[in-house]
C-alpha cells in the first residue's frame, strides 16, 4: 500500500525536519511530510505544486502548471514511516495538499511510527478516516474564506465545521488578506460556536514584507476579539521554498 507525496526535487519526497512555522505549534522542531493532491484550489496557494498539474485550469494567481511526474512521487507506507523515524524528531506534521484525502493510507503509515505526536494540517472539508483519527493529537484546521476563490459550498461545509468545533484537538487557523475578512471569520465563529481561544488569524503572504505589513493591522484585530495571531516563521527564515 502507498502514499502519494509532493517532491522537493524530481523523485525526492518532501519529508524533512524543520521548525513548525505557523499555527499553535510554531517554533517546535518537527518532521514534516507533505502529501500531494487537494480538493480545493486557493488562488494564493503557496504549494500549488501539490495540485495544479498540467491540464488543471483551476485559477491561481501565478498561473503556473506543474508537471505531475516531477512534482509527485508514490512511496510504500513503510518506506515513508522509515524516513520519518530516521529524522529523529518526536513530533510529526502531516500537510499537503489535503492530507485527509489519503486517510486510510495515513492510518497504516502512522501506526508504524514510534514515539511521535501527530498533527495534521487540513482545509477542514474532509472527515478524518476512522482508523486515523485516534492516532492524531492535533488538527490545524484552516477553512478557506471567500478570498481564496473557492466556492463557499465546497470550502465551508457546515457539518464539517461543526464537527471540528466540537473536537478540542482542532485549532482554527484563518488566512487573512484584508481587514474585512474578519467579518467572515466572526460569522463562522458565531454559527458554529467556535471558542475565541481556538481561533488563530494568520496574514496571507509569501514574503516577510507582506507578512509583517499585514501583521501590523491584524494584531490589534486579534487582540480586540480575544483571538491568537499566527506568524509564518518559515517564510522569515527560509523564504518561500520547498522542504523548509
TrEMBL record:
Gene: queE
Similarity comment: Belongs to the radical SAM superfamily. 7-carboxy-7-deazaguanine synthase family.
Keywords from the named record: 4Fe-4S, Iron, Iron-sulfur, Lyase, Magnesium, Metal-binding, Queuosine biosynthesis, S-adenosyl-L-methionine
Positions with a binding annotation for Mg(2+): 47
Pathway: Purine metabolism; 7-cyano-7-deazaguanine biosynthesis
Name of this chain's protein: 7-carboxy-7-deazaguanine synthase
Necessary cofactors: Mg(2+); S-adenosyl-L-methionine; [4Fe-4S] cluster
GO-annotated molecular function: 4 iron, 4 sulfur cluster binding; carbon-nitrogen lyase activity; magnesium ion binding; S-adenosyl-L-methionine binding
Keyword Nucleotidyltransferase belongs to the record: no
UniProt binding sites for substrate: 19-21, 34, 95
Amino acid at each position: 500500500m502507498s502514499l502519494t507525496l509532493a517532491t522537493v526535487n524530481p523523485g525526492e519526497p518532501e519529508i524533512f525536519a524543520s521548525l513548525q512555522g505557523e499555527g499553535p505549534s510554531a517554533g517546535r522542531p518537527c518532521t514534516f511530510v507533505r502529501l500531494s493532491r487537494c480538493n480545493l484550489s486557493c488562488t494564493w496557494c503557496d504549494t500549488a505544486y501539490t495540485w495544479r498539474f498540467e491540464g488543471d485550469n483551476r485559477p491561481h494567481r501565478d498561473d503556473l502548471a506543474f508537471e505531475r511526474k516531477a512534482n509527485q512521487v508514490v512511496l510504500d507506507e513503510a518506506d515513508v514511516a522509515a524516513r520519518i523515524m530516521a529524522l529523529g524528531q518526536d513530533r510529526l506534521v502531516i500537510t499537503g495538499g489535503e492530507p485527509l484525502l489519503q486517510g486510510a493510507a495515513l492510518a497504516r503509515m502512522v501506526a508504524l511510527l514510534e514515539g511521535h505526536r501527530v498533527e495534521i494540517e487540513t482545509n477542514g472539508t474532509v472527515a478524518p478516516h476512522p482508523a486515523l483519527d485516534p492516532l492524531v493529537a492535533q488538527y490545524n484546521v484552516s477553512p478557506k474564506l471567500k478570498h481564496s476563490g473557492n466556492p463557499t459550498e465546497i470550502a465551508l461545509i457546515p457539518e464539517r465545521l461543526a464537527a471540528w468545533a466540537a473536537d478540542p484537538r482542532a485549532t482554527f487557523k484563518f488566512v487573512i488578506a484584508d481587514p474585512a475578512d474578519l467579518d467572515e471569520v466572526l460569522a463562522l465563529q458565531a454559527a458554529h460556536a467556535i471558542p475565541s481561544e481556538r481561533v488563530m488569524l494568520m496574514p496571507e503572504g509569501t514574503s516577510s514584507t507582506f507578512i509583517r505589513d499585514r501583521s501590523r493591522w491584524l494584531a490589534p484585530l486579534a487582540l480586540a476579539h480575544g483571538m491568537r495571531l499566527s506568524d509564518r516563521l518559515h517564510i522569515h527564515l527560509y523564504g518561500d521554498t520547498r522542504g523548509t
